[in-house]
Amino acid sequence: MSNIPINKEDISVRWLTDRLSNFGYCSIDKLQIEVMTGHNPHLSQLFRIRIEYLERTTDHPDVVVLKIPPENDNIRLREAALGPYDSEAGCYRLLKEFQGFNLPRVYSLTQDSEESTACFIFEDIGAISKGCRYPGLGCPEILQVLEFIAAYQSRFWLDESLSHYDWIRDSTWSYLFNQNPMKSILGWQAISQDHQIEKTEGLIVAGEFLSSRLIELMEVMNDRPNTLTHNDLHHGNILLRKSHGLFQPVLIDWQLAAYAGGTNDLAKFLMTSVPFYVLLQREKNLVRYFVDCLQGNGITDYSFDECWRDYRRAQVMVLANYAISGVRRSPNGKLGISKGDSTTAVIRAFEIADPQELVEILP
C-alpha cells in the first residue's frame, strides 16, 4: 500500500496542509483540483491545485502542481522498478541551489522507500500559450538554457561520487536507454523509405551508423568527460516562467539522469528545442557559447574542438534513439517512422551537418 497519494481522492485539505507546513502555519479552506496536460496514468499523474486559505503566510503558494505516480498497482511498481521516481527526487536534491530559477521550486518531496516512488509539489510555472504545444524559445531563452546546462554540468564535472548513487544511470545506459542498437536498423529503413523525408547527405552518413556500428561509436564516446546529465532535454521538458515581463526557461522531468558525457544534453537540446532557422544560422556559435559557459564555470580543459566533435557524435546517438523508439510496423507489414515534432526536428538537424566532417569525426 503506497504511503503517498496515488489518486485524486487522496489529495485532501489535511494532506496538503501537512505538506505545506514547512513554510509556517496555514489553514486551508478548500482545494480546486484539475488534471493537467501531461497527465499519464501509465507514467505519472499531474494535477494543478488552486488553494483557498483561511490563514497563511506570504510564503504559501496560491497554486501548486502535484506530480504523483500511477494509481494502478501493477503499473506503478513496474515503472518504479525502472528508477524514474528515485532519479528525479535525487536530482532535485542535488540541484537544490537552482530551484526557483532554472528548476521549479519544490514545496514538498515525499518518497515511498518500499515502492521507490515519489510525490512532488512544485510551483506552478504557468500555462503554455493557447494553441501551442510547447513554449517557443527565442535567442535569449536558448542562451539561458545553455548557461544552465553548463552550470549544472560544471558543478558535477568528473564527480565520480555520482557513479555510486543507485538511482543515477551510467554512461553506457545513457546512449540508447538500454535499447538494442540493432533495432535502429528498422528505424533507418523506415526513414529511408519515407518519401516525405528529405535524405540529405549528412542524414545518410549518420543513418549508416544505425546498426551494430553504434556500438563502435559508443566506445569512442566513452572518452568524453562524464558529468551530471538530464538525458531527456527536449522541448517538452522546458517550461517558461514569466517574471517582470521576461521569460526564464525552467527544466523539468529529471527521470533519466545519468553520469555521462555532457554533449548528450547539448545535442538533444539543440536538435529538438531550437528553431531550425536559428540552428541553421548559429549552430557553431551556440556550441561555442556552451563551451564558453563551461570555461566561465571553471572547466578549462575541454576545448571547443573536443566539444564540437563530441556534439556531432552525440547527434548520431540522438538520431538512433528516435529511430528505435519511433519506428512502427503497420498491420500490412510496412515500416513507418514517427512524425512527432522531436523526431522530425532531429532528422532535419542533419541538413546542417557537413557529410565529409561526419565521416572524419565518426569512427
Your description of this structure?
By secondary structure, the protein is an alpha+beta fold. The chain has 2 domains: 8-123, Phosphorylase Kinase, domain 1, CATH 3.30.200; 139-361, Aminoglycoside 3'-phosphotransferase, Chain: A, domain 2 (Alpha-Beta Complex). The protein is built from 13 helices and 11 strands. The protein has helices spanning 13-19, 73-80, 84-94, 139-155, 171-176, 184-193, 201-207, 213-221, 263-273, 276-296, 304-326, 341-349, 355-361; strands at 27-35, 45-55, 63-68, 106-112, 117-123, 226-229, 238-243, 246-251, 258-261, 327-329, 335-337. The strands form 4 sheets. The chain has a 5-stranded antiparallel sheet with strand order 1-2-3-5-4, with helices on both faces. Strands 6-9 form a two-stranded antiparallel sheet. Strand 10 (327-329) and strand 11 (335-337) form a beta hairpin. The N and C termini lie far apart (50 Å). 39% of the residues are buried. The model has no long low-confidence stretch (mean pLDDT 95).
SSE topology:
Blueprint: H1 13-19, E1 27-35, E2 45-55, E3 63-68, H2 73-80, H3 84-94, E4 106-112, E5 117-123, H4 139-155, H5 171-176, H6 184-193, H7 201-207, H8 213-221, E6 226-229, E7 238-243, E8 246-251, E9 258-261, H9 263-273, H10 276-296, H11 304-326, E10 327-329, E11 335-337, H12 341-349, H13 355-361
Antiparallel strand pairs: 1-2, 2-3, 3-5, 4-5, 6-9, 7-8, 10-11
Helix pairs in contact: 4-10, 6-11, 7-13, 8-11, 9-11, 9-12, 10-11, 11-12
Contiguous helical run count: 13
Q: Order of helices and strands, N to C?
A: HEEEHHEEHHHHHEEEEHHHEEHH
Which class of secondary structure composition applies to the elements?
alpha+beta
Shape: globular
In CATH, the architecture of the largest domain is Alpha-Beta Complex
What integer is the average pLDDT? 95
Q: How many angstroms does the end-to-end distance come to?
A: 50 Å
Number of strands: 11
Instruction: Tell me the Rg in angstroms.
Output: 21 Å
User: Going across the major beta sheet, what is the strand order?
Assistant: 1-2-3-5-4
- Major beta sheet, specifics? 5 strands, antiparallel
Helicity level: 40-55%
Domain count, please report it: 2
The CATH C-level name of the largest domain is: Alpha Beta
Low-confidence stretches: none
| β-strand amount | 15-25%
Q: Within the CATH hierarchy, at the fold level, what is the topology of the largest domain? A: Aminoglycoside 3'-phosphotransferase, Chain: A, domain 2
